[in-house]
Amino acid sequence: MSDVSYTPRVTGTGLKASVQRFGGHLAGMVMPNIGAFIAWGLITALFIEKGWTPNAKIAELVGPMITYLLPTLIGYTGGRIVHGQRGAVAGAVATIGVIVGSTVPMFLGAMIMGPLTAYIVKLWDGLVQDRVRPGFEMLVDNFSLGIISGAMAIPGLYFIGPVVDWFTKVAGNAVDWLVDNSLLPLASVLVEPAKVLFLNNAINHGVFTPLGVTDVQEKGKSILFMIESNPGPGLGLLLAFMFFGPKMMRGTTPAAIVIHFFGGIHEIYFPYVLMKPRLILGMMAGGAAGVATFMITGAGLVASPAPGSIFAYLAVTPKGGYFGVILGILISAAVSFAVNSALLGFGRLEKDEETEEEGAEAVTAADEPSANGTQPTTSNRATTEV
């Protein structure tokens, strides 16, 4: 089992740390399967009816991949994280239950059933460990795995799948209301804070991707793929840090920009926001500006850009749709840069903090006894304070 971590290590035990840790687990289920998302996205962009090279036969792959393959991979990976290969198999079997029990791509259900079923198998294995007679280990292991995973697929079919299906439809109705009232940019007020707590994968693949797939079937493209995945706000934030952030952080931003904007790993900029929480306002402003631009220009994508890099965006942009997509990314980056730069005081806040620290260090040094044990004189203190 891979030990690769897809999010920065979280320390602490508070609510924020718990949410970040939870988001990190969700990212761990999605990120290893990004290659499969890319394959689905490219096939969708190239071969659907409104794709670059329409091919009805090849386009038949799109539906099964988004409905069965991708959720099963997420459930498999979630189970593997919890309990190795046995957990992976159990997670995949249980995920089939939520897939069949719903009418939308069941990413969110897979994120629930995969780890949950694997955890139950883990509890069972701990219970029977060292209690199975020699020669019966394989029999017990295989039958217990089959019974538990098969049993968990049933509540997935009758309960978890329909509940997640209902939640997705409610979210879809809310999004439709925002679109009908030209208020979709307000979604950024909720999305951006959730993103920096590492809930981005749950939001994008659990909510917006299933809704976007429905949009594509009706309209040939969807703006919903771009609400969470837009790399513009993060680019603006990192540029603001590069020019006006703390000096010790400025050297880290060029590499972070490459990883974020070209590599599509948005998690790289989350610690920058968490370090200065007021910057979430700049992220909201940038996200809202981008969504507004996408709406005005009628921009949309034909598949979820996974990962959320500029290359993935261009790969799933429909013919004739580049102007609105690129403009939205640029405007969101510009607004994010401007607002975050202002929140950073255009570097003045950093200078003021450094001045205060230097003044405090000087006063402390003046108040400390000298090497020969004598105290600083009043005149020395006055000179230091001046």
UniProtKB/TrEMBL annotation:
Q: Which GO terms describe its cellular component?
A: plasma membrane
Q: Which UniProt keywords apply?
A: Cell membrane, Membrane, Phosphoprotein, Phosphotransferase system, Sugar transport, Transferase, Transmembrane, Transmembrane helix, Transport
Please give the Gene Ontology molecular function terms for this protein: protein-N(PI)-phosphohistidine-sugar phosphotransferase activity; protein-phosphocysteine-sugar phosphotransferase activity
> Which Gene Ontology BP terms does the record give?
phosphoenolpyruvate-dependent sugar phosphotransferase system
User: Can the keyword Cell membrane be found in this entry's annotation?
Assistant: yes
PTS EIIC type-2 domain boundaries = 22-353
Give the primary localization class.
membrane
Q: Where are the transmembrane segments?
A: 30-49, 61-82, 88-121, 142-160, 223-244, 279-302, 322-346
Cite the InterPro entries for this sequence: PTS_EIIC, PTS_EIIC_2, PTS_IIC_mtl, Sugar_PTS
Q: Which PANTHER family match?
A: MANNITOL PERMEASE IIC COMPONENT (PTHR30181), PTS SYSTEM MANNITOL-SPECIFIC EIICBA COMPONENT (PTHR30181:SF2)
Task performed by this protein? The phosphoenolpyruvate-dependent sugar phosphotransferase system (sugar PTS), a major carbohydrate active transport system, catalyzes the phosphorylation of incoming sugar substrates concomitantly with their translocation across the cell membrane. The enzyme II CmtAB PTS system is involved in D-mannitol transport.
The molecule here is called: PTS EIIC type-2 domain-containing protein
